[in-house]
UniProtKB/TrEMBL annotation:
Pfam families: DUF4153 (PF13687). This is Uncharacterized protein. Keywords: Membrane, Transmembrane, Transmembrane helix. It comes from the Bacteria. Signal peptide: none annotated. InterPro entries: DUF4153. The chain crosses the membrane at residues 12-28, 34-51, 63-92, 104-122, 143-161, 197-218, 238-260, 280-296, 308-324, 344-362, 374-394.
Length: 535
């Protein structure tokens, strides 16, 4: 009868495979490892789910969300969004481990979950899921030792003897050539280049850490901890709530006056409209989060304390609405950018948390609020992935400047997710062809258009070079590949000829205006303050 592996042994072998797979999947040269990261996080999330002792509906939803975020690494090309997905996956699995340990959840324990997980795992001396070979499959120890000693001696002795005897050296070379050992030597040398050494080091760290993290996940949480102390400790928050409520009431009065102020009034106060919109959104969002933290940590639910909590909830809703309105007004005037769309997402997130807390507070069921908040936060992040901000920016409300569409933003700050490179490139070429600069402003405009078109040409050429021949599957990205299929037949030789001709006009002496004579070449490439303010 064959050896029956225990659950711990199977998980141990799986962790060993993942420890080797992860560094070789995500550490690659040049390109971002979209597929490598996606597969690695899918494997790690699956292990966290497998070792979970209580596969409740909440745990299953966490696993599904981790898998969805991992798949979006494969689908979306925007690097900032990829970083957000990576952080999300780490937090989801960390929270899953907290739930597996039956540890009470609070916003503090969730926020510190990854750090707590790593530090606590380091203290585990004997992991429950060790990565080792079974004695039924291991090569005898003495045989391994003998082979290593023999190989080491031959590698040392043969070169020394070859240098001392030309006939022996010739015999060695013939032997190596006849059995094609030179290919083996070349392959062995490649195993010890810098990138592989880094992979070996990371694999070793994972061999040590993953079994300990898995062991920590299946351990029962202690009855008391500093998390539970903070959760159960009652702070005297009535006076802070009253003070904040009064300050916010006064703020609302002055804020309504600002809302009805004209652009000229704002300028007289030292504000531009863009500066005012950005600062209002950031400041109101922060204050709303502070209010939320204040009411969340107040354990008193009676009399005047309950009244002030309800007042603060209403004021937090007003603040979030104001932040939402400032972002909406600015987007209506100047189109979408990543910051503005993420602003909508943040405002929606704060608004949802406040509403969820209000519902839980009224029903006196705040215990379930943390899980609801986690689920809502994950839903917001998944919605960001589905919405595809790059596509929304280009196809629905492109970023604009006072003089029209902001082609610099559309060409430099959008990824392949926008499905816009070829369209935007052709539009820029059509703008460039008739341009003959006659003054400083026209030269600057032509310079920007040429730079933007060159950026797009580079992105499309890079995509063609990456996917036209054999490519590293670890760096494959669906959006990038779909863009490659759109532009693979495009040739950029004609554009580069046009680019060269037009750039010669920028430096042409036909521009004879006195104002233009004294401009240094560097000034031609400096963005205007108006352009910077609009971002």
């Amino acid at each position: 009868m064959g050896h029956q592996f225990s659950f711990e042994e199977r998980i141990g072998y799986l962790l060993g495979i993942i420890s080797i797979m992860v560094p070789f999947s995500v550490i690659v040269m040049r390109d971002f490892p979209y597929t490598g990261l996606s597969l690695s996080f899918l494997a790690l999330s699956s292990v966290v789910f497998l070792i979970h002792r209580r596969k409740t509906t909440f745990v299953t939803c966490l696993f599904a969300a981790a898998c969805a975020s991992s798949l979006f690494l494969f689908v979306r090309a925007n690097i900032s969004l990829a970083m957000l997905n990576i952080i999300t996956i780490i937090y989801i699995n960390s929270v899953g481990i907290l739930v597996s340990r039956n540890q009470p959840l609070s916003f503090i324990s969730v926020a510190l979950a990854p750090v707590t997980l790593i530090l606590s795992s380091l203290s585990i001396q004997t992991p429950k899921f060790p990565v080792h070979l079974s004695r039924f499959h291991a090569i005898p120890h003495r045989l391994v030792t003998s082979i290593v000693i023999t190989a080491g001696l031959l590698i040392l002795i043969i070169p020394l003897l070859s240098s001392a005897n030309p006939l022996f050296e010739h015999l060695v070379r013939q032997t190596i050539s006849s059995i094609h050992l030179e290919k083996l030597f070349a392959w062995t040398g490649s195993l010890f280049d810098v990138i592989n050494i880094v992979r070996y080091i990371i694999a070793g760290i994972l061999f040590i850490m993953l079994p300990r993290i898995a062991t920590y996940a299946v351990q029962e949480a202690p009855g008391t901890s500093w998390f539970s102390f903070i959760k159960n400790h009652t702070l005297p928050l009535f006076m802070p709530k009253v003070a904040v409520s009064i300050v916010l009431f006064i703020f609302f009065i002055t804020q309504f006056q600002l809302y009805f102020s004209s652009a000229e009034t704002l300028m007289a106060m030292g504000y531009t409209q863009s500066q005012y919109a950005r600062e209002v959104f950031a400041q109101l969002s922060v204050v709303a989060l502070i209010i939320f933290g204040l009411i969340y940590n107040d354990k008193q639910n009676k009399g005047a304390s309950k009244t002030t909590t309800l007042i603060l909830i209403i004021e937090a809703l007003f603040l979030t609405g104001m932040a939402y309105k400032s972002d909406y007004d600015y987007s209506s005037l100047w189109g979408f950018t990543h910051k503005r769309l993420y602003g909508f997402a943040v405002a929606s997130w704060i608004l949802g948390l406040v509403i969820l807390f209000f519902n839980a507070y009224v029903k006196n069921s705040t215990g379930a609020f943390v899980k609801q908040g986690i689920a809502y936060t994950i839903a917001i992040i998944l919605a960001i992935n589905i919405a595809n901000f790059d596509y929304l920016i280009y196809h629905y409300r492109p970023a604009t400047l006072p003089n029209g569409v902001d082609h610099e933003y559309l060409s430099r700050y959008l990824s392949a997710d926008a499905v816009s490179y070829d369209t935007e490139f052709q539009e820029l070429v059509n703008r460039i062809r008739p341009q003959v600069p006659k003054n400083r402003e026209e030269s600057l405009e032509l310079q920007h258009d040429l730079d933007n078109a060159s950026t797009l040409a580079y992105h499309m050429s890079y995509s063609n070079n990456k996917y036209a021949g054999g490519f590293d599957i670890r760096t494959f990205n669906l959006s990038e590949y779909q863009m490659y299929l759109r532009v693979k037949n495009m040739s950029f030789e004609e554009y580069y000829i046009l680019d060269s001709k037009k750039r010669s006009l920028i430096w042409s002496p036909i521009v004879v205006e006195e104002e233009f004579r004294h401009i240094t070449p560097t000034e031609l490439f400096v963005d205007s303050p108006e352009r910077n303010n609009q971002r």
